[in-house]
Amino acid sequence: MKVLIIGGGGLVGQKLARKLAERGTLRGETIDTMVLADIVDPQPVEAGFTVETAACDIADPASLAATIDDKTDVIYLLAAIVSAQAEEDLDIGLKVNMMGTLNVLQRCRELGTKPVLVFTSSVAVNGGEVEQPYNDQTLLNPQTSYGAQKAIGELLVNDFSRRGLVDGRGFRLPTISVRPGKPNRAASGFMSSIFREPLQGETANCPVDEDFNHYYLSPRKCVENLIKGAEIPEEKLGKNRCMMMPGRVWTIRQMIDAMTAVVGPETAERITWNKQPELDAILAGWRMDIRADKAEALGLEADASFEDNIRYFLEDDIAK
Amino acid sequence: MKVLIIGGGGLVGQKLARKLAERGTLRGETIDTMVLADIVDPQPVEAGFTVETAACDIADPASLAATIDDKTDVIYLLAAIVSAQAEEDLDIGLKVNMMGTLNVLQRCRELGTKPVLVFTSSVAVNGGEVEQPYNDQTLLNPQTSYGAQKAIGELLVNDFSRRGLVDGRGFRLPTISVRPGKPNRAASGFMSSIFREPLQGETANCPVDEDFNHYYLSPRKCVENLIKGAEIPEEKLGKNRCMMMPGRVWTIRQMIDAMTAVVGPETAERITWNKQPELDAILAGWRMDIRADKAEALGLEADASFEDNIRYFLEDDIAK
Fold it and tell me: Where is the chain membrane-spanning (chains A, B) (predicted)?
């Protein structure tokens, strides 16, 4: 079993690689080779099997031809131009998120080996004038270029799979919280930083009201779901192979209460509550009430509670 | 007012051109120039204003640059690789239906003039595991490459419009019946030929049961809706600018009864009823119960009855 992770240098890619190294198997087979590919040669992980790294640009078919060979059984396509950059630069988003996904699919078609392709879509495909809650039957009406490009990726993955050219399956990632690392200026940054920074002894600002609701998943459960996602038998995927990955809808208040239940009340006192009017319009579109019935029926799971998200951060990621 | 019809050589393009010639105005302005463009130089129409024709390949950005200039106020993008060909040849469908649509949008962006773009999507974006009736809020889960490429076009039209690069609006055309012309081998061919051929004194075969239901519109109403579609004020389009064009759900029996009501019972006796098992799987996916509430609220209209479809064919199209 040869596994390729495109986007193997990112947060989810690295965690997925470490988890696969720990398991040693995928789809009931022993992994003998894992390739971590990213736009810059990613950090390898320790494993009991061969781990290779590669620089790969999915916007370049020749680069993909060098990276995806006919021995590759499972491909994770995690690489993407993220939301803020895709909004700033339409062309780079189209080139990587849309054409890059098509290039991966065309490479699989060219090989004729019908590999399993796990594509990560995003909660950002939702939005617009569609009524909530969003479920497996609701129109994708994205309101960012990133969301539009991911929705296009879903249509391509479905069509290439329907034609038997690849065994694709796509999962729309919830907002991942608690993300490790440094604070960033992304509009969604506060959704992790209001927990991460206080848990690490720092302050952080929350720019929305306590009743702001959104759809979340921990990094640990995300990785477990990506592994399960590769293992779903093809015949169970139905006619729409792209679906919401299970997460849970929490309000900011519920999440803070969960943090308090795990670590006591002092931590939440490090959160400040200053509105950022320039973010209001963006964040209004991010209230999201979502149902992931199909993925749940296929065995994927949300966190049991946000207390778990907090515990996983403390166990897996807190800066020491 | 300069109007460009890309796909101006096709059935709908020619009828639209003739209707615009007859009206002389669009969006409240006098038309001074109309350009009919198609992959081969289309037939011009008679009009009281300048009519130009052009050969244009939307898959080629240079060809589009020569065809769409900064004087163009309204663009109709009707050109496409049709369903059967896009299913046979994935690459040509991607090149024309997906990249061609993107090329038109990029050309509009390059000009910076924000023209009105009327994009024709298709009933074929519907299908898959989505429950019927399909409405303005239901997931697009197309089960043909043509449908997937049209759904991608919708996402691109919405995103370029959201960014203010074009004033796009997309309409999913119902199955057009009664189409004039010769019988063809398309799986959907019978949906026109069982009326057209008998009305012209010939026989035709119906390969489905009397209770087969689908979603239809006459060519005349389609053209009227495309004109109204260009005239909808941008601010009324909302966050999803692509919608089903109103049609009506009829069973084969209802349509035949309508024909009999208009022309008497002898005509329907020219229909034969032989199943074509090779079509069963395709046609099972074409039973379609659809609601077009949004487009109706914006003033677009279905035929009042299938008797009207028959009358329009007799008035506009019957072979003399």
Answer: none
